[in-house]
Amino acid sequence: MESGLIQWKINLLQGEIKVQFWPDRADESMIKAALNNAGFDANDEKAVPESYAKLPPICKRAEDGGGPKPPKPCHIPPVQ
């Protein structure tokens, strides 16, 4: 990927996203921006509302009626 992100794995049951990236091409702010642009919160930074609205219900916040339902994971590829 041009952005420096290699891949990410989302585990909403555990409330975590593991990000694999090229350290010479990506930093924390770029990774947070990619997550926010894909519709996910990143620590204290909220998701872009338009992107969050496009997420399938399984990938949304529990307070919005979403959340993972085993064995259906949330699979969203990183934004390139």
Per DSSP, the total helix count is: 2
The total strand number stands at 2
Rg is: 12 Å
Largest sheet: 2 strands, antiparallel
What does this molecule look like?
The structure is a single chain. With 80 residues, the chain is of the alpha+beta class. The chain has one domain (5-64). Helix content is 21%, strand content 16%. The protein is built from two helices and two strands, in the order ββαα. Strands 1-2 form a two-stranded antiparallel sheet.
Please supply descriptive tags for the structure shown above.
single chain, 80 residues, alpha+beta, two-stranded antiparallel sheet, 2 helices, 16% strand
Summarize the structure.
This protein is an alpha+beta fold. It contains 2 helices and 2 strands.
What's the structural blueprint in terms of helices and strands?
Elements lengths: L4 E7 L4 E6 L6 H11 L10 H6 L26
